[in-house]
Structure formats: structure tokens, C-alpha cells
Amino acid sequence: MSATLLLGLIHWNPHWQCFVKSPDCAVAAPKALDALLTPSQDFANVIEMESSSYEPPTGWAAIGMDATCGNDWDTLLYNADRWTLERNMTGCLVPSRSFAAGIFSLRSDPSVVLAVVGAHFPQTLNASTHAYEDATAAVSDQLRTLWDGGRTVFMADTNTEGPVAAAAQPSHHGVNRTNGQLLADIGLWPSSPPIKEPPAAPLYLGCCYSDNFSWQGDRIVANFGTVRSSRVLFDPVPDWAAFEDSEFHKGVQLELAIE
Question: Is the peptide bond before 194 cis (omega within 30 degrees of 0)?
Fold first, then answer.
């Protein structure tokens, strides 16, 4: 690779209620996703985009464009004009929680290869259930069947807060991890203390509309590159997402440079 490559990364969880309980949200959310999937973006992980009629914009393709694990959806979209899909996997991390993963090569320079993983973790608030350990072990196991641990982007609703945010809320006990600890638990980052922080979108309060966005959990983390910029999406929350029983999450966008 002779020049800096900029990766545009998006993660968002509109949640299933959008498509079941609000006709306005069911119409608006796919349009909002289309607006994000511009030619300058590369990959997007979307959780519970439960629209069987949705088709990505021209130039984009998808892995997991249906309920790949029971009723749970994790859809990984990629810019097919820029990237070639070499191989992929979808399925369950744990019962009723999905993942989608792919190995991609850059069309303009096939020597540039990376893995992108999207995932939907189970609730990890109760540490005694071992849900977090089960999910991270599953991500690690699935990656080993696809990949040698090289350049990897991980985008997920982890249902796991950072320690600072968890400590600020007495009711937010259970599992909490920094981005570095999370990536180390998956096996993609050095685990020897002190654990350094990897390139990632800053942790933010994005879940959920019903909880007045008091929870973290949605993340974009990589084991390579340099963060150029990051921003929270859907902040303020659009009117079409503000309905009774909404569990809408704000999204996150990250620009990552590969030198």
C-alpha cells in the first residue's frame, strides 16, 4: 500500500421495535441507513434492522441480511465497489444473539486484507450468568476459523459498559470493560497489564431511548490503524425514533487511517 487508506466505519442498532411498533420508524430507519452508506464509507454493522424488504444502495452488499440466529439480526454491510468479499460466516454467538463476519481484500490493492466482525452480545449486567465470557469466547472461536489474527475491525452492541460509566451508576453493576480489555478478551490485543487502549470510537452513552441513553455498549474497535475522527449518530434523536416502547440506540461513526 503506497498511500494512507482511510476506512469509514459505522455501527448502529435501531432495535426491532422500530419495525414492529412504529410504522414511521419502519419507513424512516432504512432511509437513514441509506443516507449513511455513501461512497466514502467502507463497512457498517447494523443490529436488528428487521426489514426483509431492505436492499442496500447501489455499490453496497451485505452479509446476514436476514434473521441468522433465531429472530436476531446482525447485518454487516460493505462497500462492494471498494472491497472484495473473500469469505464469510454468520450465525449465533450464543443462543438468540447473532454475528456476521467477513474477510475482505481491497480492490485497488489486493494485498490489503482485513477482517470485519459485527456482533450482538447478550445482556451482561448479571456477571454470574457468564454471558460476556461466552460471547467473547464465541467471537474468538469464530474468528480463528476465518482469520490469522491480522488486521481486524470489531463492531458490536456489547451490552457491556466501560468501568468509568458503570461506576457512576450504582445500578450498573456486572461486567464492564474498556475497549482494550474487550479486544484482549477476544484475543486481538495484548493482554499483559497495563492494557493499552486500541484505536476505537470513544465510549458513549447510546442506549437506549427508553432509558434516556444512560448506558454504553455500542462500540467500534480495531487492532490496527490511527483514529482520524469519530462522531455519535442520531444525536439529537430524530422524531421518528421517539415513540412509546422505543429501544432505539444512537449510532457511531469512525474514520480509521491505515498508513
Answer: yes
Residue 2, pLDDT > 70, answer no
Length of the chain: 259
Mean pLDDT of 235-256: 98
Q: What is the pTM of this model?
A: 0.96
5-258 homologous superfamily: Endonuclease/exonuclease/phosphatase (3.60.10.10)
Instruction: Please say whether the beta carbons of 127 and 174 come within 8 A.
Output: yes
Separation CA 15–CA 4 (nearest Å): 35
Given a cut of 70, whether residue 18 has pLDDT beyond it is: yes
Say how far residue 76 (Cα) sits from the centre of its chain.
9
Q: Tell me the Cα Rg of the chain.
A: 17
Is 74 in contact with 45 (CB distance < 8 Å)?
Answer: yes
Q: What are the domain boundaries of the chain?
A: 5-258
Q: What is the pLDDT of residues 77-111, one digit of tens each?
A: 999 999 999 999 999 999 999 999 999 999 999 99
